[in-house]
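Tokens help. One example:
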Amino acid sequence: MQVAFGVLGPVVARDGAGGAIALKGPRHRAVLARLIVARRHVVPVARLVDDLWAQPPGDAVGAVRTFVAALRRALEPERPPRTPARLLVTEGPGYALRAEPGTVDAWRFEQAVTAAANLPPQDALACLEEALGWWRGSAYAEFAEEPWARSERSRLGELRLHAVELRAGARLDLGRAADAVPDLDAHVAEHPWREDAWRLLALALYRTGRQGDALAVLRRARALLVEQLGVDPGPALRRLEADILGQARHLDPAPTRTGDAAERVWARAATAYDRAVASGARARLDSTVGLLRNLAVTGGGGLEAAREHRVAAIEAAEELGDAELTARVIGAYDVPAIWTRVDDPPQAAQVVAAAERTLAALRPDAHPAARARLLATIALESRGTSSARGPQAARQAEETARGLDDPALLAFTLNGLFMQTFSRTGLAARRDAIGAELIALSARNGLTTYEVTGHLIRLQARSALADFEGADGHAKAADLLAERHELPLVGVFTDWYAALRLAATGQTPAAEAAYLEAAARLDGAGMPGLERGLLPLAQLSLRLQSVKSTPNGVLSEGNWAEDHEKTDWGPYEPWVRPLLLLAQDRRAEAAKALRRLPEPPRDLLLEALWCLTARAAIAVGDRETMQRAHAELTPAEGELAGAGSGLLTLGPVARYLDDLNAALRQESGKRRA
């Protein structure tokens, strides 16, 4: 398990699953931070003592050793007693943290900024946006006053400012001057002595048709430099001012891309909006959510940015104390969803809590559509949980929407209803009906993204029902709509479906290759709730389908289980663990892991996780779990396990029920004997 460290903000450590590692008190955190500052070099104990205390206590050396021992236990909890540490090591007169370069966010940030300087603008922009997103505050935030952290904090801070300017330059190179202006405006306000930032801001303004504003920026920069520092602007600023006054042609963006006309229209419209709508106007929040909704369907960084800014928009609306405005801001983000596990559970919980507060604050005479949208939001953001509130909100939203003449609202509520159709197994036909209604409704009313969602829902449902001819038709329809309307995330799901199709028809080698290609497309798609653990689970499904009689033998071949002991199974690890242990002849441990299994999430892989549970229960002879698995799987007897995800399958549920019946009869026979 590889530990990751974060110092671009408060100092944190996370385990291989992304969970926070408890670092105890401030001295423990200071020792860890000091070792990270040393960049894998040894820090003598005497130096640590001097750095930790202005006036060291008498037992300072012993205290440092205690801190180090506690850190080792936290960072390597599975290390056997009396074996040497591999991460926080003792060497010579002191200690060193042998973290890999990619495991410390500050080190990765430095590598990313260096690499971005040599990348094409599009790649550089993506690289820098991701890297700047790693910052959670100022570097080594809680150690701002410590002398040992001062130079490293200063260095990283300067690198961050340089990255902001590189990002602005990449946007300008791509013809996205309007996107660069807001960040640069804030940047120069906070760091007024950075001449290159002033230059970039003036150039961005000029390229958005704001020549007067560009000249005003340059004059403001000159006044600050002369009055505050007593120096004249450098040659780059002076040259830019002369070029703007002369409207030099080289200042115009190079016409190297298709879509330049659209870019100019966007820039001019954004400029006009900035001028016409006051900066504090509430209309800006409404407009922001519309932009975020469109941004979300672009995938990758766009989807991640939309999620981040959505919460900020909700918080801003709540601060104004206007419940109707807040309801609009929350409910207008009606981005269709197809995967039943949220990408950011804490953020989803924030949205649900805000929606509940707003529902309670709305006046009794508020429009029913506002309530329906809040309820649909609760249903969508509560997906995959066992809360009774999600299904209740979904039903209330649908009932309200059906009484209103608002097709977009009905589509939104149907999406929420779909997300809450996982109270038990075997509901593929119910979801198929929702998908069919969503397609018909959306096609009549030009709701393209919901029409695509309807096709993907039916793709999943028809796969669960083993109707691959029908699923093929929906995959094709979704791809055609996605190509026509520039919806790149759709291809992620149809690529995974193509791999499932191969797996379900016994074409295992081709399916293995297809899954690897589909997983590569997931990288950077901005959907961690879908991505984590999915590829190894799909690979496991292929192996398990290759044998029908032995529950765990296939996992023993070629040391497969041992090789995957440290695989990141993501949220599926608890259900895979018993099978891995069985494959290593660790039956007692497997039985114990099986008894600790939580309830499977109420999502698209519900049947698949129960089938994994059934397989392990049969292998260890756990009668109680076998009976439970049989009861849970019986409603899905006619379906393919996991195929309702549209991503993978463990084969017919009926086969697992047959195996369970046989095992239970055998157990009963043993008891009678």
